From TrEMBL:
Keyword annotations of the record: Periplasm
Protein name per Swiss-Prot or TrEMBL: Glucan biosynthesis protein
Keyword Cell membrane carried by entry: no
Subcellular compartments: Periplasm
Originating organism: Bosea rubneri
Every Glucan biosynthesis periplasmic MdoG C-terminal domain range: 39-507
Organism placement in taxonomy: Bacteria, Pseudomonadati, Pseudomonadota, Alphaproteobacteria, Hyphomicrobiales
Pathway, per record: Glycan metabolism; osmoregulated periplasmic glucan (OPG) biosynthesis
InterPro entries: Gal_mutarotase_sf_dom, GH-type_carb-bd, Glucan_biosyn_MdoG/MdoD, Glucan_biosyn_MdoG_C, Ig-like_fold, Ig_E-set
Entry similarity comment: Belongs to the OpgD/OpgG family.
Length: 509
């Protein structure tokens, strides 16, 4: 999420709640987890359980020094922790933690605790441990807490691998990538007219890693008007970076629209969606589509769009095997953007741990006229609501990667394009499928494209094989008649067996 977009969420969390009310939740948590005591993950669960029995205390930013909530972005990002303010720097543990200052749109306070030798230690705010750049430092003796933290990994050449800041947002990447999409630990009522409810983290407990373990464990205390929770995240960075997420939720109210495994990102324009697009760059997107493996094993891919109107799509399933928002375009010439380098942005793949039952992968596509907005949201929505007073656990493995770690032995839809058709309201679509088997002459001869449009009629269907590139190009036109929406489905078939994933698309007028 862009800093500005994240800030809009962060600002909605802040109110003028009196300081004594703000401290009441902290007192409750400290009655369960006190500084200097032995830490156990079950203590965060117990703190969330106790917190759920009381009304939510909104966050407050009334303690911020004057001008900090309105800092320009370029000044805010100039505030960085000095080397002496980094947690575990110089200890050769493979990770360092940089506490992040409050200000700009990140005005909500977060408490940080380090768990060292199994003992809880509060990370105290100290203005002397920050370099303020062009910003006037806050008054001495003020405890501002923090807005979140950065995680760096590597001993000889450390690099940032994760950022946890704002509401329940966090982001990560694989080695060699740039930051792009972001995740949310929990999402409630997105896209609804009654308004979205924004959960947030009140505090984090970060376990000091063992040397050379390559693993960092983070515990977060989640709070919201309708739910509290304990979230345990296990970070394993590398050529693929994995984050295992385990949540225990305590519902204060009935949760009839809850989302797990949420990812957000930007799709502004590309060959499959060029609404109000006038730019020297051919494409502008950090994500190209949503990929799914259903509970039955079917692999599905849906290209993203920047629609004229808000679009919400539901892909019904039972016990999904995986889903996520992916960036399939890795050719820098597809973007010609040497600043943003969209081809280096991560794909984010969710693998449920355990059975999730019935529900749907939800895809929300929000129209935007700015590439700075995160206008794409995907998550799993369980069909069964979570009842007030109940306790719910959910777990999944998140991969920040170049491509999902589990890949089908099928041809993938690597590029999609659309444009004006040959007549009337027809739309012309071209889809390229790429796979190792598409250089086999026998398979190519037996392959046909199965295309449906609901509603609508398919015309001028053609296939062009390019065995030297292991690619099969499919072109067709859709005549929607008098309809303004058509759901499209395409799969390559040979002898009754699918040789490609299923390509889905929604055309709207």
């Amino acid at each position: 999420m862009s800093a500005a977009a994240t800030g809009l969420v962060a600002q909605r969390l802040v109110s003028g709640t009196p300081a004594h009310a703000q401290s009441s939740w902290a007192s409750l948590v400290q009655s369960v987890i006190t500084e200097g005591q032995r830490f156990e993950a079950s203590l965060v669960v117990e703190a969330a359980r106790m917190l759920s029995r009381r009304p939510m205390v909104p966050l407050t930013a009334t303690d911020l020094p004057e001008g900090y909530a309105t800092l320009p972005y370029d000044q805010y990002v100039g505030i960085r922790a000095q080397p002496g303010g980094l947690i575990w720097a110089g200890e050769n543990r493979g990770f360092t933690i940089e506490p992040m200052h409050r200000g700009y749109v990140f005005s909500a306070p977060v408490s940080l605790f380090a768990v060292e030798d199994d003992v809880v230690r509060r990370v105290a705010f100290d203005r002397g441990k920050f370099d303020y750049g062009r910003v006037t430092p806050p008054p001495a003796g003020v405890d501002l807490q923090f807005s979140g933290f950065r995680v760096a990994t590597g001993l000889e050449r450390p690099f940032e691998v994760a950022i946890f800041q704002g509401a329940t947002f966090f982001r990560s990447l694989a080695r060699g990538q740039n930051f792009g999409a972001l995740a949310r630990a929990l999402i409630l009522r997105p896209g609804e007219t009654r308004g979205e409810e924004i959960p947030f983290f009140r505090a984090y407990w970060i376990e000091r890693p063992s040397p050379a373990s390559g693993v960092l464990i983070i515990h977060g205390l989640l709070d919201s008007e309708s739910v509290t929770g304990a979230v345990r995240m296990t970070l394993r960075p590398g050529d693929l970076t994995f984050i295992d997420v385990e949540m225990t939720l305590f519902a204060r109210a009935n949760l009839d629209h809850v989302g797990f495994g949420c990812t957000m990102g930007t799709f502004f324009a590309g060959p499959q969606s060029r609404r109000t697009f006038d730019d020297v760059r051919p494409s502008i997107h950090e994500l190209s589509g949503v990929q799914m493996q259903s509970g039955t094993g079917e692999w599905i891919y849906r290209p993203l769009s920047n629609p004229n109107n808000l679009q919400v799509s539901s892909f019904q399933d039972s016990n999904p095997r995986g889903f996520g928002l992916v960036q399939r375009e890795r050719d820098p010439n597809a973007f010609i953007d040497d600043d943003q380098r969209f081809e280096l942005r991560p794909s984010v793949w969710m693998e449920p741990l355990g059975e999730w039952g019935q529900g749907s992968v939800q895809l929300i596509e929000i129209p935007t006229d700015s590439e700075l907005n995160d206008n794409i949201i995907a998550y799993w929505r369980p069909r069964q609501p979570i009842a007030a007073g109940s306790e719910t656990t959910v777990a999944y493995r998140q991969a920040w990667c170049w491509q999902p770690p589990d890949r089908p032995a099928l041809a993938l839809a690597t590029r999609s394009r659309q444009g004006r058709g040959s007549q009337g309201r027809r739309r012309r679509f071209i889809v390229d499928f790429t796979g190792e088997r598409l250089n086999d002459a026998g398979l190519i001869a037996a392959t046909r494209a199965v295309v449906t449009a609901t509603p609508g009629a398919v015309h001028n269907l053609r296939l062009w094989p390019f065995p030297e590139r292991r690619t099969m190009r499919v072109a067709f036109e859709v005549d929607p008649g008098n309809e303004n929406l058509s759901e499209l489905r395409l799969v390559l078939d040979a002898g009754g067996q699918a040789v490609s994933e299923t390509w889905l698309n929604r055309w709207t007028w």
